[in-house]
Design brief:
It is built from 11 helices and 10 strands. With 444 residues, the protein is of the alpha/beta class. The protein has 2 domains: 4-383, Zn peptidases (Aminopeptidase, 3-Layer(aba) Sandwich), CATH 3.40.630.10; 409-443. Helix 4 packs across helix 11 (364-382). Bound molecules: zinc ion (ZN).
Amino acid sequence: MHDLAQAIFESYPSLTFEDPSPPPREASRPFSPDLHPSTDETNIFFREYQPLSVINPWMRLLQSLFPTHVRMISIGISYEGREIPALRVGVHPTNAEKPSGPRKTIIVAGGSHAREWISTSSVNYAAYSFITAYGRSKSMTQLIEAFDWIFIPTLNPDGYAYTWENDRLWRKNRQQTALRFCKGVDLDRSYGFEWDSESTKNNPCSESFAGESPFEGAEARRFANWVRNETENNNAQFVGFLDFHSYSQQVLYPYSYTCTSAPPSLENLEELAIGLAKAIRVTSGEFYGVTSACEGSVTISPDGKDCPPRQDKPKDEKKLWPRMETGGGSALDWFYHELKVSYAYQIKLRDTGSYGFLLPSKNIVPTGKEAFAAVEYFGQFLMGNKGIEDIEPGVNEAADLSKPIELVGEQKEDWVVVAREPEMSSDDYEAETVNSELRRRRRR
Ligand SMILES: [Zn+2]
């Protein structure tokens, strides 16, 4: 990358810079939940990165379109008052003779670091692929019956909004620190297991600032509380955690906080990690490395420093290098060690450094397919289908956007984008200035 400003510019939806006229109002954004044939390239939601004001209505739309197996839920409220939205995808087969034990649940999360937009789009892509495969693919339907899937595209909604409105390369959340001019806690250093503030405690301005105590990061605390509450009060048993980040194309397993202590189930973790990398490679040909997160997080930059300077100074490609990401207090370790989730991974998506966090939008669909391949393999592995290559050839693919979606459980309807209606004004998403709402409406 030669021109950082240009790369940032180009990572926003093209409409805002190709069109010389003023950008359209949100209400006229060209997103329509078109159920008619479209291709990957023309599916407008995945053609560009999307702001919260589009992602949240899109999630609600999926819930209305697929009420049999999709529910939009909230993980909690962010520091600035936004919802942390999620899609719960699952079907509980009713079988009165079988006493229902805890519901096995798998979390697929992204957007913990605000600028890693590809993690958010990829979680959405994987969710969409799961949701639209239900009832069409036998093996995918089995996965949705066997587990509840929680897709959380924006764990850090305040930071994500900030990357759209102010600073494309913002990483942390947006909460106040002791230093007035340095906001933000690094959510992936906020969790309570082996929390370590040593390197950043005197520097709230640090991009990896861990806060002053464990779980000070508001969204990390909310997420952990939600998970505990689901476990204790909602009959959920969390069996898998996939935390998508970018960039460097790596599948990372615990521990993140140290390389000197091996996780008790090291071989199992490695086995599935290699399977995830293989599932990706079979899908796209892209190579994802497999290593312990402690090794993946310590990356030496070409100039020999292990923590390269912040990447907002252009024209020096050497500085665009995978930075030290995790360490103590990571979500990965907390889920694995504290919550006893047997299979927990952090997957760093594309690329390997050419564009880094400013990955061009043409990568959204190909990277989404890689993420979906990994998530699907993950489910198959947990169902006991180890080493599975493709148990249902031609069907187990990412959402084929060139085919019309089969609605499950209700008739096809025509859909139009209409202005937000008054009864929606009490909605919880007001903070994001949602100017439009995608509402379904029968034409006849
Ligand atoms: Zn990250």
